[in-house]
């Protein structure tokens, strides 16, 4: 009988307590990991949306900055297309299939990637002063309910 009492080891109750503690720690760690990776994916999509909007805004600003004449929208008008004369060539920006395209020399190239859905593109052409050649072009579009807007003042010859 004395041999059984002196034997070292864990009782069944101790083993069950250790297994339950280990399971709790592993479960908590996995839950935390999945929450962090899920928020990381959400953050990545938000960054992609912002970078895409900056790229499109910069491209439209670039097109307007060197434009000789704005064909559409007409003076004090609003349109979902921008058409400008630039170096004797007609270039246009328009929205189709949730993307923004730049058309030049009859070829349309996407300014936005297909993973980002862009809609509600519009341009507004405002003459700042009567009798002057200064124009103010406002343009905006929407990505996932967030509106991105910019204003470009140009001198039209």
Can you give a write-up of this model?
By secondary structure, this protein is an alpha+beta fold. The chain has one domain. The protein has helices spanning 2-6, 12-65; strands at residues 69-72, 78-79, 81-86, 89-96, 99-104, 107-110, 118-127, 134-143, 146-155. Strands 1-3-4-5-6 form a five-stranded antiparallel sheet, with helices on one face. The protein has a four-stranded antiparallel sheet with strand order 2-7-8-9, covered by helices on one side. A hairpin with a 2-residue loop joins strand 5 and strand 6.
Intertermini distance: 110 Å
User: Taking Cα atoms only, what radius of gyration do you get, to the nearest Å?
Assistant: 30 Å
Summarize model confidence as the mean pLDDT: 84
Strand order of the largest sheet: 1-3-4-5-6
- DSSP helix fraction: 25-40%
Task: Tell me the β content.
Answer: 35-45%
SS field, number of helical segments = 2
**What is the count of structural domains?**
1
Task: Decide which structural class fits the backbone.
Answer: alpha+beta
